[in-house]
Amino acid sequence: MTLAPPSTAVVLFNGKDLSNWTQRNGDAAIWEVVDGVMTAGGGDIMTQERFTDFMLHLEFMTPNMPEATGQAKGNSGVFLQGRYEIQVLDSYGIEVPGKGDCGAIYNQFAPLVNACKPPLEWQTYDVIFRAARVDPSGQVAENARVTLLQNGVVIQNNTQLLGVTGGSANEDVGAPGPLLLQDHGNPVQYRNIWVAPLPLKGSDKY
Ligand code: MG
């Protein structure tokens, strides 16, 4: 699904440089940018901006690694708030994808169906994210929720997350967080990334 960003969107990747991104340690981001595309390499990167509830659009492409299998085949990941990984992997053709496959909430929830395209084809993720709600005592009152469309197909339907996934930047789920892209050692590519922040609730005007 090709979507024009809504007027409220924050364009996170301008296609030219990584000026709104850093490495995990805060240093300037060092992924390579060529022809409007960034390629994973050199460590995870994350946005400088922090988000709570939002809609996210991005496009990704896995490399062709015919000799590789499982988690070694085109692995990357999209960490919502730097805490919850939506897996990126070459899972093309797998009949029943699992909790480690592309579109999974990593190690928590498999995608409902396999909506993957082959490697070397651009794919889309459209995400609707509702952050966890934390009460004044610091207890989680409502878990974070994710709805995810891959290539226009619903593969996570208002999934209530069980908590942060492995590799989370932190466990402070009540705080805003960045968008973080994982470097898992494979040259996965990204382009056209934007986030439209959402109000935490609608008006109560009747
Ligand atoms: Mg990953």
Q: Can you describe what's shown?
A:
There is one protein chain. The chain has a single domain (10-30, 44-197), classed as Jelly Rolls. It is 0% helix and 35% strand. The protein contains no helices and 15 strands. It has strands spanning 10-11, 21-23, 32-34, 37-39, 45-47, 54-61, 76-80, 84-88, 123-130, 133-134, 140-142, 145-150, 153-160, 180-183, 189-197. The strands form three sheets. Strands 1, 3, 4, 6, 9, 12, 13 and 15 form an eight-stranded antiparallel sheet that branches. It has a five-stranded antiparallel sheet with strand order 2-5-14-7-8, with no helix packed on it. Strand 7 (76-80) and strand 8 form a beta hairpin. Magnesium ion is lined by residues 75-77, 85, 87-88, 182, 184.
Which features does this protein show?
globular; five-stranded antiparallel sheet; 206 residues; binds magnesium ion; Jelly Rolls; mainly beta
